[in-house]
Each structure stands twice: as C-alpha cells, then as structure tokens.
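Help wanted!
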Amino acid sequence: MKKTLFFAAAMMALSASAQVVEDFKPASTNQEGKQYPMVNSQRMVRAQISAPEATSVKLDIGGVKYDMKKDANGVWTGESAPQDVGFHYYQLNIDGASVPDPGSKYYYGASRWGSGIDIPADDEEFYQVKNVPQGSINEIYYYSTVTETMRHAYVYLPAEYYAQPNKKFPVLYLQHGMGENETGWSAQGKTGIIMDNLIAAKKAVPFIIVMDNGLNARPAHPAPQPAQQGGDQGGRRRFNMGGAFQDVLIKDIIPMTEKNYRVIADPQHRAMAGLSMGGMQTHSITLANPTTFAWIGMFSGGAFNTQELENAADFKKTNKLLFMSCGEPEEARMNVTKAANDIKALGLNTHSYISPGTAHEWQTWRRSLYQFAQLLFK
Amino acid sequence: MKKTLFFAAAMMALSASAQVVEDFKPASTNQEGKQYPMVNSQRMVRAQISAPEATSVKLDIGGVKYDMKKDANGVWTGESAPQDVGFHYYQLNIDGASVPDPGSKYYYGASRWGSGIDIPADDEEFYQVKNVPQGSINEIYYYSTVTETMRHAYVYLPAEYYAQPNKKFPVLYLQHGMGENETGWSAQGKTGIIMDNLIAAKKAVPFIIVMDNGLNARPAHPAPQPAQQGGDQGGRRRFNMGGAFQDVLIKDIIPMTEKNYRVIADPQHRAMAGLSMGGMQTHSITLANPTTFAWIGMFSGGAFNTQELENAADFKKTNKLLFMSCGEPEEARMNVTKAANDIKALGLNTHSYISPGTAHEWQTWRRSLYQFAQLLFK
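Answered by r_m:
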C-alpha cells in the first residue's frame, strides 16, 4: 500500500514535471543583465527571487497566484500556467507583501507602476525595433485651462517630421485603458516602433500621435451641469463616459498640438482611437463632437451601433473610417463584426478586426493599432 | 532600582521619539495616489508596506538598512536618518528579499530599475515644472556602426526648435554615471525642466542635449590595439577611461545628431559634459579629441590638471569653457576650485562650482547642470 502510494505520487510528479519544457529564456522585458523572469516555448513564466527568510513567495500573474519553492540557498523559483502571447502585468507576493519583481522593467497598469513581461508571439516582428528611418516618442508638459495644471503627455513624431521641416501631418489622438496612463501606448503598446516599421514599409502614411492621460482630467472648476455642454443626442447621453477628458481633449490637447506642431488642422486629418476605456471615450467623444474627427478606432471598447448613427447626419458626413476591434474571446460579448456589417449599410467605411488567440490585453491592441494605422488618412 | 531603570528607558524612548517631527508628507516621487514613502521637515524618510506574514522588513537607503515595525494589521512602518536634499535610490528588504517599494516611481541607478525618492530642497524651484514655453525629451533609436545594434537614447529639444523651424542649434552631449543609463539625466536629473526654466528666464540660450548610454557600448568587432586610434598624449593615456563609448560618440552619436536635427555642426557649438563616470569620460574623450568640443563640463568626475593641458595646443585653441564641479564633501578629494584656478593661468575660461550641503548625488548634478548651462554657447 505504502509502495503503491509512493509510486502514484512519483508518477504524478513525473507527469507534472514532464509537462514543463525546459527551454526557458530571459524575457525581453527584463532589466539589463537579469536572467529572471524567463519564458519557455509553452509560454509559461518562470520567476525567481532570493528571499532566504521568507516562508511564502508567490508569482501573481493573470489573476492567479502560483506558489514558488525555496532551495537550500534561500532562492525561490516557480512557474505560471501558459500565458497568452504579448504583454502582461504581474507581481510577486513575499510573505503577504505584493511587490514588483526586481528582475523586470516596470510599466504602468492595474493602477500601479509594476512588473511586466512580454511573451514571444509568432507575429512579433511588427513591433520589433528595426534599422529603418526612426521617429521619436516625445515627452512633453503643457498647461491645461480645464484642470489649471501642467499636464504630461507623449507625442509620436514620424521620421519625416524631422527630415521634411516644412511638411504638415495628420494627427491621431490615442488613448489608454482603465488603470493605465499616458505611458501605456508607447511603452507596452510599442506605438513608435509599430509606426516606424509601418511607415518604412509604406504600409502607413506618416502621421503624428498624441497620447495623453484619460483619467486625471478633473476640471479645476467643474461645470454645474456638464450635460448642457453641447453634443448631439447620442453624445449627451454618453457625456459622462467621455467624462472630464472630453473637455481637456477639445479645449487643451488639440489646440496645444495644432499650435506646437506642424499639423493639418482639419477634421479630415484628425483621428481618435483608444483601447477599452479609451475606446469608450472615443465612442462618446466622437459622437458628441460629430464634425471634429473623421477617423475613429475602438479597440476592445465595445461597438458603435446603427441606432445612434442613423440620425447623426454631421457625424456620417464627416466620417471617413469607423474601425472596431477586439480579442477573439471578447467577440461574443462585443460583436464588432456584426456591428461593422450593420453600420456599413449606413454607407460608412467600417472595418472590424478580431485578434486571434488574444483577449482583453496589449497584444490585441498592438495588433489593432497595426491594422488601424494602415487604413488612416488614405 | 527597577523604577529608575524604567524611568531611564522611558526618557530614552521619549527622547528618541521627540527627535522625529510628525510633519511627514508623501514624496513628490510617489506613484499617483500613494501616501508612502513620506518625508518630514527633518528630511527623514518614512516607508510603509503591508507584509502580514513577514518577520523582518527593512528600509534600505543611503547605504544603511533601517528596521521597520509591524502593527496589528501586518503593516510595517519605519524611518531613516535625515537624508541630503534631492534624489536618492532606495529599496525595501522583506525577509531577505531586496525589492522596489510599491509606493514609489522607479528610476535606473545602482545598476537596477528601482525606487527613488526626492527630498525637498530650498532651491527646488529651478527643477519644478512651470507654465513656460516647453521643449521635449525625445526617446529615439538609432543604428550604431560600432556596436552594430540599434541603440536607445534621449534628445532634449528646446521649445524654439519647434517654434522656429529653420533655426539651427548648438548641442551638448551629456552623460550619466556608473550604474546609471540614458534615462538618468531626464528622469532624476530633470534636464528638460531645468532647461525650459533657464531658457524662459533668458538665463541660458536654447540648445539641444543628447543623452546616451555610456556603458553598453562594446564594439561588435573590437580593434586589436585601441590605444593606436589617435588622440594626443593625454588622450591616449586615458583612452580606456573613455572606453568603447568614445567610438560610439564620435562615429555614431554625433553624426546621427547632426544628420537628424538642425544642428550648428562645428566645435564652437558642440559641448560635452557628464557626472561621475560620465565626467571622467568627458575628461578623456575631450582630451583625445582636442578639436571636437569647445565647451566642457565635469560634474563630480575629478578635475583637469595643468600638466595634461600645458602642451595640448589644439585643445587650448579650441576650448571656450572648462567647468568643473562637485559636492561639498567631495571637494577635499577632487580639488576642483584649485584645479580651476591653476588652469585659468593657462589662459582658459575655467569655472568651478561646489554644491552646498550635497555629496556625490543627483542634487549636486542638477545644480551643476543649472550652473553650467548658463555659461554654455555664450
């Protein structure tokens, strides 16, 4: 009996360990020279940390906490289940303290600066740095008349902006999701790299991208009845979704951009897009400002519908592109393919995209930007 | 006897706690919405973290580990001794694991991405964001013929670069210290903010600043005898101090900058400066390339000496400014004041600066940049 139990336990251990392919490599998101965390070909994450006096260390990724094991030197090691390709936020838990992994670089998401890890993808070539003409991601401050503070944002300028000092460019206003900030699209989203590669391959025309903070936009002097601040019926209904950010975007960010940069300052050369919450903001702000943006993208942010567009004459007259996307498992809920087909019947240039094998996460949004950018300003 | 001991212990406890002034405020370097770490008017740092199952938590700052204490809820709190004003790297130690504090933003220094904290200073106004014409800190990649890789750097462009699309600008090449990287001068150094403020106050002329990585410059194909690669006697002697970075700077960074930006591309409009190791690199590279840089700054990087300059005819003919600085306690070792006085006798425009009350740390280097920038290109 004892022998049988031992045998069964040994078989289970063998079976469990046989499932882990030992081809782990340091993640591309690691700090320079750091070996851990690692990723294997099964897309499992292996973390490691020295914590000699700890009694419990866990790897916390994808909403699951995985127990790590201590060796004789006090070094803890443990693996996650396979993750989706692309970028994920994670942390370590050491005796009850949730902390960043000292092996990874840090990104803002889940309402904190913390660890991130990139799982290699078959299509990763589109967001890898190549020796092609390079634009830049520019960190700026500007004064907001709405918040009465200096705000912080990032501006992508394509290589041509520098090479052709008299040329003017279209602009995309591109927003992050809930719990993220203005750093998301350039850091984990790899916006600058994706755009430089697309432009070099002549798959996209050069344009400027402004990435701001869609959350910290509380006005210094809130209006008593924000619903009265204009917009059509659909726009008013959704004003609270656009929230305070609508005011900052329309009154401060767009004028600042058009003052400081060489911009073609008309609706036909102005786009707005965003992911998740940023997609919902795009939805409500573009409806509430129907003649301001001709090019619109919603990534994992739900879908426009025919009802709200049927009588939106100004919106329809202005619009050049309505792009809606989401991750494969989100489609059952978001129905972007059906929405796009329905809206096409209204005569709008509507596109949909479903990111294969990825969910509500950055790989879906990198791919969405890659698809959307190829349609913009053409 | 027992009573006396108790009284003595109580007095000691009172005396110790009386030393801590309870006016702690969240640090300016905290993550948005995070209360801890805090700093009080005595410049003590108070850290706090929830670690219910931990048996030992320490605050590790300024080379000292301070014990923190657990409350009934498993939350640990503890204070450091008073710190110098300005920026410091720190970390937490949880049951033997050294990790970033989840309350702070993260900076690269001490050869890692980790926590940083800014202690308020009487003169902090010069590095605070103001509503003045804003330049930008631009993140770029470029191809290096020396390392045969895409390298990563930051470029400060002044507001006028955008406002005056045909104007050309001088350039400062500005280097970080050992254990730091290309992000240091813009993040903890606050280069862009210091420059925007100085230029708006008309205390500095507008110029471009290129901030690169002075450490990861190993050539793809190292030359067998690097000492033969030119430079005068002093330059050859110090070639290894400039190291592989000299080649990347001269062959890749300067040509890239002069190709991609509107630059006045002559020695009279080209400066090099650096802090600590970056100052030593500046020392050796400017000596080894005596007709390349007219304006030179060494911050906490030692000093030039008359011996190496006496026969450096090309260097002396080219030079417009030799600036040397350090923190107050460093001066006994670095002697920048004496060195500056000695070198003045050679007919060079030499300046020295001693940062009051700060050591080998970022406040010294922020102030050094502030002083140096006011002398440049005038």
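OP: Thanks! One thing I noticed: Chain A touches chain B through 56 residues (CB under 8 Å).
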